[in-house]
Amino acid sequence: MELPVLAALAAGTGASLSSAVQSAGRDSFPRWTMAGIDMAVETARRYIIKRPRLTRLLDGANARVLMLIGPAGFGKTTLAREWVADRAHAWYRGTTATADVAALAAGLADVVSELIPEAGSRMVHRMRAAGTPEQDVDILADLFAEDLAGWPAETWLVVDDYQFAMEARAPERFVDVLLRRSPIQLLLTSRKRPSWASARRLLYGEVYELGRNELAMDHDEARAVLAHRKNASAAGLVALAEGWPAVIGLAALTDDFDLPEGTLPDALYDYFAEELYQAASPEVQQGLCRLALAPSLGDGVAEFLLGGDAPQVIGEAARLGFLTLRPGTLELHPLLRTFLDTKGCEASVEDGPEATRLAHHLSRLGRWDDAFILADRYFSHELFVTLLESGLRTMLEDARLATLDRWLELGEAMQVDAPIVDLAQAEIAFHRGQRDKAESLAVRASR
Predict the structure, then answer these.
(1) Cα distance between residue 162 and residue 421, in whole Å
(2) Sequential DSSP letters for 232-248
(3) N or C: which terminal CB in the chain sees fewer CB atoms within 10 Å?
C-alpha cells in the first residue's frame, strides 16, 4: 500500500484513479460509492504528474529482478503500477498471510495461472496432501519452477508489499529457490530489502534496486505537485519533507498551510493529516475511526462497518484522500491508519464490541488472518475459541500450519485452556510426524 488516493496521484505515479476504476470494473463498487469516487477523480486530476526520472531508471535496468525499497509513503506501489501498466504482468499483493509459505505459494499460483493455465496446481496439491509446506519448501518451489519454465518474454511477476514474506524464513527461501530455478522476471516493492538480495547479486547486476534516495521526490517533481500553491511555504516544504511523497501529496490536498518551524518529516505528515481530518465532519471522523478498526477493507468490510453512513463517509474520505482505491476494493493507507490510532478514536467508537462483531464477520468471510489481528488486538477468551473453532478445518486443509502456530502461540500467551486448542496442537504434531504427542493431545481434547 502506498499513498492516499489523491496523494498517490500527486506523487507523480501517472496512475489514474479513473483507469483504476475502469480496470476493476465499475460494477466492483456499490453504485453509491462510485459517486464519491467520481468526485475524487475530478479533484485528483488537478495534481496528476508523471515521474519519468524513475521509469527511465527501471527501463534501463538489465536485471531480471527489480526492487523498489523504501518506507511507507514513498510511492512504491503506484510507481510499480505505472511501470507495468503497458506490460504483461501478474500482480500478487502481500498481506500478513504472506508470512505463511503455504499462503504465499497458493497466492502466487493463483495469480500466475492467469498467464500460464494450471501453473502451480501440482505444487498446491502436493503441499495440501503432505501438509508439511515448511519442510518441503525446496520441493514446492521446484514443482512451481517447472511449470514456469515457459515464462513469457517481457512478462513480469509483481510482488507488492513483500516485507510480509520476510517475517519468516520459509517464504524467503521459497522465493529465492523459485528465482534460481525459473526464468521469471520479478518486480517487487518492500519496506525492507529481501535477505536473498545479497550485495553480490546487486554488484553483479542480477538484482536492481531503487531505494529511498531515488524514490524521494526531487525539487522539480515536488514543485510540479505544488504548482497551484501561491503560498511561500511551499518552497520550504520541499526541503523540510526531505522528498517524502506522502507529505508532499497530503500538502497538495490541504487548502492552506503555515509550516511549523523546525518540523521533521514525520511530524509534517501528522500536521497535514490533521488538517485533512479536521476538514471532515464529525460523522465522517467517526466513520474513519470505525474503518481504522479493520485490518483491511476488502469484501465489503467498509460497508459492514459503516452501515447506512457508508455513502457519506466513503465519498468524503475519498475526496479528502484518506481512502485509496485499488481494483475491487478500498484501502486505508497504513500511515493514515497510524494517525487515526493516535486520535483517540476509542472515545468515539466502542472498540471491543465493534472489533468482536467485525472479527465474527471476517470469520464468516474466511479471512482468518485479519480475524487473527483483531483477536490479538482485542483479545477475549470467548472470541479466540470461537474463531479457532471456525477456522481450524480450513487452515488445516490449506496446510496453513505456520498460521495455526501463530494462533496457538497467542492462546498459550493468554493461557487459553480449551479442547479446540488441544485438538489444533494434536493436528500440528501429527503433520510434523510427532505421533505420540499427537495421540496424547487428541485424547486430552476428547476428555
Answers:
(1) 31
(2) THHHHHHHHTTT-HHHH
(3) C
d(CA 203, CA 416): 50
Tracing cell 491508519 back to the chain, one arrives at 337
Q: Are 222 and 212 in contact (CB under 8 A)?
A: no
Residue 171's identity, in one-letter code, is P
- Residue 176 burial (CB count, 10 A): 18
CB 14 within 8 A of CB 48: yes
Could you give phi then psi for residue 226, rounded to 5 degrees?
-100, 20
366: left (phi over 0), alpha (psi -120 to 50) or beta: left
Quickly state the pLDDT bin for 226 (edges 50, 70, 90). confident
Pick the residue with more confidence: 106 or 220? Answer: 106
| Phi and psi based region of residue 399 (left: phi greater than 0; alpha: psi -120 to 50; beta: remaining) | left
Q: Residue 113 carries which side chain, given as an amino acid letter?
A: S
Average pLDDT over residues 193-197: 97
Distance (Å, rounded) from C-alpha 64 to C-alpha 61?
9
C-beta atoms surrounding 277 within 10 Å: 18
DSSP letter for 92, please. Answer: E
Amino acid letter, 260? P
Angle between helical axes of 381-397 and 401-413 (0-180°, round to 10): 160
Dmax (CA) of the chain: 75
DSSP reduced 3-state for 419? helix
Q: What local confidence, expressed as pLDDT, does residue 327 receive? A: 64
- Pairing mode of beta strands 65-69, 185-190: parallel
- Is the model's pLDDT at 197 over the cut of 90? yes
